[in-house]
Design brief:
The complex is a heterotrimer of chains A (331), B (537) and C (172). Chain A has 331 residues and is mainly alpha-helical. Helices cover 60% and strands 2% of the residues of chain A. Chain A has a single domain (2-305), classed as Transmembrane di-heme cytochromes, Chain C (Fumarate Reductase Cytochrome B subunit). In chain A, helix 1 (2-22) packs across helix 9 (203-225). In chain B, helix 22 (484-497) links the parallel strand 6 and strand 7 (502-505). Residues 12-19 of chain B have low confidence and may be disordered.
Chain lengths: 331, 537, 172
């Protein structure tokens, strides 16, 4: 049921942008919304991260996933159970760039004579494909915001299109356009088809999926099917960068819908689960070294607690202790 | 019309009970015998000063809550959001990818969707969203938020006392969200209202008073150790006088009190006594620090600290140099990840050095607490101990990694090294059920109460199933472990699922194989059963 | 074609159907997970149930004696006896196996043969109930034994309770 709401919301947003630009509110969609969204994103993101950062880490509780460091001769698993800052950096690197924890359940098993690979491998693959495709697409888009295309972006573009395939005589096909769409449909599909995942899904789980699907579709339509005036678009985007906003002629509704959905994504980001992008760096079960017995971790809000002292204990049991011949403090 | 078809009778019932309703609509929770722990007794709560102390019966509609209980919970959440980055971040960043869903032994064993770690956390997260996030306030239910009411509170109680804090889910979460941490905090909130279980609050009160969960008073502890020494004398011909509350000893030894009274923990305790005697170790037991386990950890971190203070105090009073810890799971989670933060800097103790081998335990240089398996492995490596492995030849052994020592510390090799040195027959269970991926015994974090035996059997099924595999394949008949809860919880689990597999601590195996100076020819193992080859025909 | 031949021809079909029906007695949300039949260690319910259904069907095909059915029945019932099922739900899966066989074979099989087979399968339900009781009793035994394990040793040592040992027998 959450899925319908999410879909309707995204379709509503598309309709809103379409109607808005049809009646000539181009400046609103081309300038005001993008600026507003960007500001909300930056402030919101920082606010959220700072707020998390303000909550202290009272205890050092890493989840240990391998042999610990000890003074004995056993070989430590330095990545999954780090005892130094370098080890933690390595663990975090693998966590963030290869989704190591998600990968963990991809162990292949040979059972009943057949090779069986855990279904979660698909989750890992889908998540990885989605995030990397998104990153590359994001980098590619930076050329709209720089007067000259930096070499990094050019390389990303040529790598992304190395297949050298054209569709219907349109520009070179980007692999990421395919991979992100497939990954998104997989992520959406498992939410719909696996009752267990469906059961835990909220509207806010479907909404970003539909939103990004909307962004991808409008982008793909612009690139491959309806030729849009790229020069005019770049005029607009560069205008945003140089704080000299212009609303050029010849930019159709399709572009504004695309830009509006991106604006929504940016503005929505800090209020949503998409903040996992920032949160993953702050997760105390991953970003701390397992060296509690070597180095003391300080709890900033530690307070003295009422507890039973030996004296009270001895007072209660002194006679029994003496009778049993257990040494006591006060005879 | 007429009689139902059998299949209607059996499958449709469950369909009706668990229809395609959203999970928020499946309230109230139905409390059925075998599925919930008994409520706490007022006197136990009162003794340690928990709020709202009164006898509380789970099945009563009225839980006798204070007027402003809702405010208490919400303020409690606020305080913990501000105090724990774990809690704060974990409440916000879950994307409900479902990677954890099928990792929980309770979900695997029950099929109850609310036992999926993600949903267990959502139970609380939905309340958090309602009162602390803008999206929850604006979008309400569509934003995944819900009001806190009595039914919700009961649901929280039910499911957060169905989590054993084993952290298996945390291993697979791409953001390291740790349900154990969420459970710890949820239980703190419940304890603000006096909502505890009898099985947890009783031991907590006992532990506060006598130093151990069972309420063993000092003279009883002494006699208990003496009883063990009598048995040891019968077995080995060697008389041991265990040092108790001895000032100026080099080492304070602390172990869970389960080893002092319960079968098969007692045999492990005899093992400690024999090992230390053989080494001529200058150590002492303490009747006050007579418990390393900490049921306070299953109520609130403050209570955990209150109960653990005695160990640090006793070490100081007795003037020992360092502390040696017995085999226990959550005791080691607390010692390894909390103790040093609570009580450090522990500058009145010295950096632990094995008096026998001279090995410096540098990894414990700040906390000054060494695990018995680390200590024993080091002894074996240095060839200090002599073994007759054939005494364990009737045992075909496998090793169960305890959750807390595995995922809250990372000690995997030491116990295996020891077992392989004292037993001739050792086989591992399948990879996905051991080491960091180990399955819980199903009874941790205060859930080893008798009244939830069914729940424990279901939760322990994934573990038992792996044992059954090695039992059938290799004839495994002994499940070794380094945890007192395991020693209490695994025997019933084995009796139900894999009869013929017994349970023991690792030190019991060490002591049984260990050749002691001046011992007579042994006829019996520590359980007073004939050794292999010594059976009476 | 004899009913056993027919059965063995449709073996896979029947097993899958029966397995699906039994899994559908679990909550809807967990079914997809439990249907994973190959994960022996990370999904023991699905694995055990599937394996046991296979063995039961194979035994039916082979006209095996009742003793051969005990072990697969035990494997399923042992699980269901500690789950959230009433006794009738816990043992009633036999009727789901029946249903799977009937719905697969009723068009082709001779109706007398089929009736005969169905009625034989009913006996499994009776055995299943015995097994169910055995495991429920085991639970109660375990509860009692746990209480003993927790305290017996101590009680004995304090001479609060005592056991008849060999010496007492000798002096008698």
């Amino acid at each position: 049921m959450g899925i319908g709401l999410a879909l309707i919301s995204v379709l509503g947003l598309i309709l809103f942008a379409y109607v808005g630009t049809t009646i000539g509110l181009n400046a609103l969609f081309g300038v005001v919304f993008p600026y507003a969204a960007f500001i909300i994103f930056v402030i919101g993101f920082i606010y959220r991260v700072v707020k998390w950062g303000k909550s202290p880490v009272p205890f050092r509780i890493p989840t240990t996933a391998g042999q610990h460091y000890s003074s004995l001769w056993f070989k430590q698993n330095k990545i999954d159970n780090p005892s130094t800052a370098w080890g933690v950096a390595l663990r975090m690197f693998f966590e963030i760039f290869t989704f190591r924890s998600l990968f963990r359940n991809t162990k292949a098993e040979i059972l009943q004579g057949r090779l069986y690979v855990g279904s979660s491998k698909w989750l890992w693959l889908g998540a990885l494909a989605f995030h990397y495709s998104f990153l590359i697409i994001f980098i590619r888009h930076l050329r709209f915001f720089t007067p000259e295309t930096p070499w990094v972006i050019s390389i990303a573009e040529s790598l992304d299109s190395f297949l050298q395939v054209h569709i219907l005589g349109s520009p070179l096909l980007y692999i990421t356009n395919i991979s992100i769409a497939v990954a998104l449909l997989y992520l959406l599909g498992r939410r719909i088809l696996d009752p267990k995942i469906k059961y835990i899904s909220l509207p806010s789980d479907y909404f970003p999926l539909f939103l990004i699907l909307g962004i991808i579709s409008t982008g793909v339509l612009m690139r491959y099917f309806f030729k849009v005036d790229v020069t005019a678009i770049k005029e607009l985007t560069l205008g945003l960068v140089y704080f000299k906003p212009v609303v050029p002629e010849g930019v159709g509704s399709l572009f504004y819908i695309h830009l509006f959905l991106v604006s929504i994504l940016f503005a929505y980001f800090p209020f949503s689960k998409l903040m996992h992008m920032g949160g993953v760096f702050l997760s105390p079960t991953r970003n701390l070294a397992n060296n509690n017995r070597m180095e003391r971790h300080i709890n900033p809000w530690d307070y003295p607690v009422k507890h039973r002292h030996y004296e009270e204990y001895e007072d209660e049991f002194r006679e029994k202790m003496k009778k049993a011949g257990i040494p006591v403090e006060k005879e | 019309m007429g009689l139902p078809r059998p299949e209607e009778l059996i499958s449709d019932v469950n369909l009706k009970k668990m229809p395609s309703k959203a999970w928020m609509d499946t309230l109230p929770v139905e409390f059925k015998p075998g599925f919930y722990c008994y409520g706490a007794k007022g006197k136990n709560l009162e003794y340690v000063g928990f709020p709202n102390a009164r006898d509380f019966h789970v099945t009563d509609p009225d839980w006798k809550l204070p007027e402003d209980w809702k405010k208490t919970v919400i303020e409690g959440i606020k305080q913990r959001i501000e105090r724990f980055r774990t809690f704060h971040v974990f409440m916000d960043i879950c994307v409900r990818c479902g990677a954890c869903a099928d990792k929980c032994h309770f979900f695997i064993g029950t099929g109850d969707p609310k036992n999926m770690p993600v949903l267990r956390a959502e139970l609380l997260r939905s309340v958090y969203r309602k009162y602390f996030t803008s999206s929850g306030k604006i979008f309400g239910r569509n934003g995944g938020a819900r009001d806190l009411d009595l039914d919700v509170l009961k649901e929280l109680w039910y499911y957060f006392y169905q989590c054993t804090e084993c952290r298996r889910c945390s291993l697979f979460c791409p953001y390291g969200i740790d349900t154990a941490e969420i459970t710890i905090i949820a239980r703190e909130l419940l304890n603000l209202l006096g909502l505890n279980t009898d099985w947890i609050s009783g031991p907590v009160a006992n532990c506060y008073r006598t130093g151990n969960h069972l309420g063993i008073e000092p003279h009883t502890m002494k006699s208990t150790l003496e009883f063990m020494c009598n048995d040891i004398e019968d077995i080995t011909g060697i008389r041991i006088e265990p040092p108790i509350n001895k000032k100026g000893a080099e080492i304070l030894f602390v172990t869970p009190s389960g080893d002092l009274f319960a079968d098969p923990g007692i045999y492990n305790c005899m093992g400690y006594l024999m090992l230390f005697h053989e080494l001529g170790l200058d150590y002492t037991w303490s009747t006050f620090a007579s418990e390393g386990g900490n049921f306070g950890f299953f109520t609130s971190l403050e209570m955990a600290k209150r109960l653990h203070s005695k160990i640090y105090e006793e070490a100081k009073r007795l003037g020992v140099k360092w502390i040696l810890g017995g085999e226990c799971g959550h005791m080691w989670r607390v010692w390894h990840q909390y103790h040093n933060t609570w009580f450090g800097p522990v500058d009145f103790l010295e950096e632990p050095v094995s008096p026998i081998t001279g090995t410096k335990f540098e990894h414990a240089k700040s906390n000054k607490i060494v695990h018995i398996s680390e200590f024993t492995a080091d002894l074996i490596k240095h060839g200090i101990l002599k073994f007759d492995k054939s005494r364990n030849d009737n045992l075909i052994v496998t090793f169960h990694d305890s959750c807390n020592v595995s995922r809250g510390m990372g000690m995997f090799e030491e116990p295996r090294y020891i077992i392989k040195n004292v037993c001739n027959h050792f086989y591992e269970m399948p990879d996905e059920t051991i080491r960091e991926q180990t399955f819980c015994c199903g009874s941790g974090s205060g859930l080893n109460a008798g009244e939830i035996m069914e729940q424990r059997m279901r939760g322990g099924f994934p573990r038992a199933n792996a044992v059954r595999y090695v039992h059938e394949k290799f004839g495994v008949n002994l499940l070794a472990n380094i945890c007192a809860i395991d020693r209490a919880a695994l025997p019933p689990l084995m009796n139900y699922w894999v009869p013929g597999v017994r349970v023991s601590g690792v030190t019991e195996l060490v002591a049984n194989a260990m050749i002691m100076k001046g011992e007579k020819e042994r006829e019996m193992n520590l359980r007073m059963e004939p050794l292999p080859g010594k059976e009476v025909e | 074609m004899s009913i056993n031949n027919l059965l063995s021809k449709k073996r896979e079909n029947i097993i899958n159907k029966a397995f699906d029906l039994i899994i559908s007695t679990y909550p809807e949300q967990s079914r997809i997970f439990l249907k994973g039949k190959n994960k022996k260690f990370t999904n023991p319910i699905g694995y055990t149930t599937n394996l046991s259904v296979e063995q039961i069907i194979d035994n039916i095909i082979a006209d095996a004696d009742i003793e051969n059915f005990i072990s697969p029945l035990e494997n399923i019932i042992q699980i269901r006896a500690v789950q959230d099922f009433t006794p009738s739900q816990a043992v009633g899966f036999i009727f789901l196996i029946k249903k799977a066989i009937y719905s697969t074979l009723h068009k082709e099989a001779d109706s007398n043969d089929l009736m005969e087979l169905m009625s034989r399968i009913d006996s499994l339900a009776l055995v299943a109930f015995d097994i169910f009781m055995k495991y429920r009793e085991r639970i109660y035994d375990i509860k009692a034994k746990e209480l003993m394990d927790r305290t017996w040793w101590l009680l004995k040592k304090w001479n609060i309770v005592s056991e008849i040992d060999d010496k007492i027998l000798e002096t008698k």
